[in-house]
Write a structure and sequence with these properties.
This protein is α/β, with parallel strands linked by helices and about 325 residues long. The chain is built from 13 helices and eight strands. Strands 3-2-1-4-5-6-7-8 form an eight-stranded mixed sheet, with helices on both faces. The longest helix is centred in the last third of the chain and has 22 residues. It is globular and about 60 Å long.
Length: about 325
């Protein structure tokens, strides 16, 4: 994303509340996009550490050609403060990054609702908690939602946008626009659910990984190796649905027919009775065929392979070893 440069003075600042790993990551995202940022924490020593961490990450990003301004210029856009009222005064967006503790986050949201401009969206970076749980009783709840990023957000440039039933559609649209302007792709989560999508997918992998270790099937190191050099490498190019669509001639419909019963049996071993119904498969097949006509299947497979080759080349050039 190209920086906004001298336009930043015209933009309302983004207030980030909490200077841990997610808060500092968000600060990098918005500052590299040219936004003025106010990074708040209650501990001055945490802000000193955050300053050093951001400076180091910006230097790394510059060395890989991922920022287009000197790190000092980007860092200068970030105001580090222990004064919460000053951090949110005149803010155009507030991103809460407090620790994942329900009562703490509720207290922070209540403070932010009282202190921030009345029309300013307030978003939580929570990995699991919904806006209904955090802000359902607040007078300004209509401007509250969850924006859950990948970690670190300056590298995993996608975020889940999770409104509550009470969140104003205008607030959702404004938040998505802000994120896209900062180079963050958005995924709208259609209804609230603990863990949203990102952590439910991650949790499914982790549950099976733990179970495989417990069953003595594979070691921790070998499971990491399979994901890093196999599943994860492939998923860096295509997601799980496109993966199986491209792995099987005839596409995902043929894959579901051939492999669905085996996956159902494996799920049943873990107590999950969730076979893929014909209606569900048809819905997924229709979505995939909208994205890729089978006439262009071979072209897409070749594209996937070239993208994997590029990643393997990059690994060989920068990885000192595994």
């Amino acid at each position: 994303m190209a920086p906004l440069g001298n336009q930043s003075a015209k933009l309302a600042p983004v207030a980030i509340v909490g200077a841990g790993s997610i808060g500092t990551g968000w600060a990098i995202v918005f500052a590299t996009a040219g936004r003025p940022v106010r990074l708040h924490d209650t501990l001055s020593e945490r802000l000193v550490a955050a300053h050093a961490e951001i400076d180091a990450r910006l230097a790394d990003l510059q060395s890989f050609g991922l920022v287009h301004e000197p790190p000092a210029t980007i860092l200068a856009r970030i105001d580090f403060t222990t004064d919460l009222a000053r951090s949110v005064a005149g803010a155009g967006h507030v991103q809460e990054c407090a620790p994942e503790q329900l009562e703490l986050k509720r207290a922070v949201f209540a403070t932010l609702d009282a202190a921030s401009p009345a029309d300013c969206p307030i978003a939580s970076s929570s990995s699991f908690m919904t806006a209904s749980a955090l802000a359902g009783e607040l007078p300004g709840r209509q401007r509250c939602l969850v924006v859950h990023p990948g970690n670190p957000p300056y590298l995993l440039r996608v975020a889940e946008v999770v409104p509550a039933p009470f969140t104003s559609p205008a607030v959702v649209a404004r938040t998505e626009h802000l994120l896209r302007d900062a180079g963050i792709e958005t995924v709208r989560v259609r209804h609230e659910m603990e863990g949203f999508v990102f952590n439910r997918l991650q949790g499914a992998i982790l549950r099976e990984a733990y179970a495989l270790v417990q069953d003595g099937v594979a070691s921790v190191a070998d499971i990491d190796r399979l994901v890093r050099d196999g599943l994860g490498l492939r998923w860096s190019v295509v997601g799980p649905f496109e993966t199986v669509d491209l792995n099987t001639r005839g596409g995902i419909a043929v894959h579901a027919q051939r492999m669905g019963p085996a996956y159902a049996r494996m799920g049943a071993e873990r107590g999950r009775q969730e076979p893929w119904s014909a209606e569900l498969v048809a819905e997924v097949v229709a979505a995939r065929r909208e994205q890729l006509d089978l006439e262009h299947w071979a072209e897409r497979v070749a594209w996937r392979d070239r993208m994997l080759m590029a990643r393997l080349q990059a690994r060989a050039n920068v990885e000192p070893g595994k």
